[in-house]
Amino acid sequence: MKCPICTKEMSETERIKASLFYTLIHYHCANQKCSARLEINYITHMCILEVDDDLFSRFQDCYEYHLPFKENGEWYHLIGKQEAFSGTLLRTAKNPKPMLMVDFISIPPHTLDTYGWRAFKRLKNLVVFA
Questions:
Q1: What is the number of structural domains in the chain?
Q2: Tens-digit pLDDT profile for residues 33-45
Q3: CA distances (Å), 103 to each of 2, 20, 40, 79, in order?
Q4: Residue 2: band (very low, low, confident or very high) from pLDDT cuts 50, 70, 90
Q5: Range(s) of the domain holding residue 25
Q6: Does 125 map to a domain?
C-alpha cells in the first residue's frame, strides 16, 4: 500500500495478534522526505485487520487510519476508526476541532493512495457546500 502524499510504499511497523483469528497490522510511511513529515511532522498511518479463519477465508479490512492531505496550501487530517468512536472525521492540521464527522468510511488497503484522496475530496466538498 502506498502513502497518499509521497506515493512511496508504506512499511509494516507492528503486527499484533488480537485474538485467535484476528491480527492487527500497522503501516506507516517510512519516507523521511515525505512532505507531510517535513511540513507538519505527521506520519501517515493505516491499520489493517487481517482475519484468518478456517471457516471463512483469509481477508484484510481497513480498521483505522490517520491520513494527511494538502489542498490549496492547507493541511487536513482524515481520521477513521472502527472501534473507539466508530467514524471518520476531517479536520485541519491547525485546529483539532473536527470540521465534519460521518460514519466510518472503510478505505481498501490496496487503493489507499487513490481511494484515500477520493474520500478526502468528498468530505471536503460536504464541508464547503454544507
A1: 1
A2: 999 999 999 999 9
A3: 24, 28, 27, 11
A4: confident
A5: 10-129
A6: yes
